[in-house]
């Protein structure tokens, strides 16, 4: 057996410096053939490509194929699958399989062998990334693009950190359907309406089923409608639910919240924090900024601040980010803090990676595609805010439509969901007649009393379900959206 190991290690003289343990690979294969139950512990993490010796990878693959057919995997049953392998013939043919089972002591350390094989495969992948990075950095024959190289290196390193050795994106229907059933089970366990991360607003959860991994959601509206307020509410609700479920000992896979990253290209981190504190303390943001608060208010503020100290809400307020830089920062947050939800405020403030003078529509298309790619790559929901064109203001009915999405139809195309936030009282307030026209003023005042503090979230596109309108309550004082007690048309269809 020792002679065989020397033959295997000398088979490719170009690779002697790479991290590997061929003996551990052989011992694991032998243990698997002696006790097939070991496969239950290793097959979810270890794959054929993780073996340094290609022959060992093919033998491992053959073992797994037999076990998938509910057959026993041993040297006898494996023989028809591998006997014609050229590398196996060099080692004496099927007799090599019997040699692998000769060390029964390998059964004791089989799981440790599997972990080491996997770790060494990641190290080899890391070596490959490093070599490629050095080669590209030294090659100045073409246009030098260091930022692009950094972006590519971040992508490669993220794949290594996730254990994605270039085959992770291919899934069998069995894997895909298993994931679908798990999502349905999560919705069932939540009470039949929530399969994703909670928004913290029951009526919205009921309509969309929560925030789903890999989805890009666009939240759009005209200035003053409360886009950032709604996004901040949802970000806070997701992060606080994660804390509660984690404290209750709920498994991470069943946690209905998420560690949240908020990329604020418009507002500073302290402004966003002020909004969250205002919402939780019940003190208006204006009063906080102006210092017009009582001692009792300050005590409430201090209490809210203490309770939020451990909130897993990470705010990046770097201005003028490119879509490439945002994706790089998001990967770092995923790696360091395991974020499960991303908010971007707002899409039009991001920059593309093209040269100056590029068509703005093409740039927005690149940004929306980049956000969708980010959602799929990190397997998290991404909520991106977007401005609407002024066409809304020219219509009698100010409710937004998909055609109002500003600068690019690709936003609608790339998005899995499109939401519009609309507040009728915002527009009605601008129509206030003069008080001396008593009839008109009385009619206006009566209408304002009916609609004041009401808001609509219009689900204009949803790949997972139906469209419709959801009425909510909006408290402008503390910028909080919440459920409306009597929602008469929560499921009203949207044309």
Structure description:
This protein has 495 residues and is of the alpha/beta class. Helices cover 49% and strands 11% of the residues. It is built from 20 helices and nine strands. The protein has a nine-stranded mixed sheet, with helices on both faces. Strand 4 (341-345), helix 17 (360-378) and strand 5 form a beta-alpha-beta unit. Helix 12 packs across helix 13 (269-281) and helix 16 (323-337) runs parallel beside helix 17 (360-378). Mean pLDDT is 79; it is low at 165-169 and 487-495.
What's the structural blueprint in terms of helices and strands?
Elements: H1 2-10, H2 22-34, H3 39-42, H4 54-68, H5 75-82, H6 86-90, H7 95-100, H8 110-138, H9 146-161, H10 173-189, H11 202-208, E1 216-221, H12 227-247, E2 260-264, H13 269-281, H14 285-290, H15 295-307, E3 313-316, H16 323-337, E4 341-345, H17 360-378, E5 382-387, H18 410-414, E6 417-422, H19 424-429, H20 438-451, E7 454-462, E8 468-475, E9 480-483
Parallel strand pairs: 1-5, 1-6, 2-3, 2-4, 4-5
Antiparallel strand pairs: 6-7, 7-8, 8-9
